[in-house]
Design a protein that fits this description.
The chain is an alpha+beta fold and about 80 residues long. About 50% of the residues lie in helices and about 15% in strands. The protein contains 4 helices and 3 strands. It has a 3-stranded antiparallel beta sheet with strand order 1-3-2. Helix 2 packs across helix 3. The longest helix is centred in the last third of the chain and has 10 residues. It starts with a helix and ends in an 8-residue tail after the last helix.
Amino acid sequence: MRTKAQEIAAYTWLRVSAVAEELDCSVQHVHDLISADAFGDGVINIGTGRRSEYRISREALDRFLRARTVIARAS
């Protein structure tokens, strides 16, 4: 069973696969977005050595989505 702090951390920092699922895109595309700095400073690398293991903050993902939201206007 997770502690309250673990639950908050699990929601606050998302795995690349969770972001890909939410965006309905590939894991590779999320890695490309990370490389392009699309999430700004909302990305951390918790990997060790040569292996990268990224986490994206919920806040950075929300900012990313708000910046790309298109609102259709009636003509």
